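Record 1 of the preview.
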Amino acid sequence: MPGRTVLVSLAALVAALVLVVPASALDIADATPPTGTVGVPYSFTFSLAPGSGSAGASWSISSGSLPPGLSLSSNDRTALVYGTPTQAGAFSFYLKVTDAPGPWVCCTEEDFTILIDPGLDIVSGPNLPSGSVGASYGYQLATSVGSGATWSIGGGSLPSGLGLSPDGAITGTPTSAALAQFTVSARNGSKATSKQLTLRVTEPITVTAPTAPAIKLGRQFLVTFAAKGGLAPYKWSGVGLPEGIGVDPATGRVGGRPKLAGSVPITVEVTDALGTTQRGTATVTVAEALKLGTTELPEARNGKRFSARIVSTGGAAPVAFRLAGTKPGWLSFDAATGVLSGTAKLAPRKPLVVVKRSGKHVKRVFVKRRPLPATYNLYLTATDALGQRSTTHLRLSVKS
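->
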């Protein structure tokens, strides 16, 4: 019995020793991760060397980092690196494998490097610089690897008047306004890519000047210039504006109080978002007080042609005149020009009868007499475009 017991104990001991023999050491199979390309999906699988490790191993990055855009997925005896790289470069890291938990936990790690090629990426756009109808346009497309690519239109079309050269230059003179969306393709060796771009072409910028006002000296005015075409927003500025005049850069409103009378030119310049400029001018008439400058009329002679012009100063054209008072019938008056004219006529006088006696004879003689001079009181009123009025009293004397 004792020997049996010993034998049994030895057998149990041997069995126990067999049960606790650890698995073979962890070892990552030799591998060289392939080179990836920015923007191109990537995947590579790491695995344990045959016969190493045991079920339940886990994988992790112990130091360093995977390329941006890639991730690690642990799956027992394998690990998958996957994703889409977003950055070019050489990315080194230590890949660690840890065996399943137990009395004998083994681990190992190895260093690897994954290279990410920049690939071929169109760095232009998506919104290209805008153009203007009738203005020369030029823009050079580019890729992430620099020059050397061959370009073509892969879909849609450029605005009319523009073309794309094989080296990626968009040139020409747009002939009509457009909002063009098109796809360009670039190829450099075995690499190719495409991208949708947008190019806006606008009408030339034009300025509409407001109707110029007429104001009295010392009064304020406000006018607004308008722009169309080009590319909003617009920015307005004054060009040599007189003292007392200013412009709102956002709205194109111009106003102020002119310091001097006369025709005051108001010039503004508008600049659109493309940097294109255009000018517009309005003229403000600034009038002094209206005054009648004629204070007396020349003397008229009976039977002679008479003409006189009424003169006014200041005011805003047109100036209209009105004549009132005891105007003789022969006198005409032009209210627009202020001209008095006509052939003077005095009322005739009856002849004087003279009786002459010679003996028994009596003779009557008719003697002509000159007309008596006349004086007429005239009242003139001048009215200008602003409604200003000026009135004067004139005397018209007619002599025989």
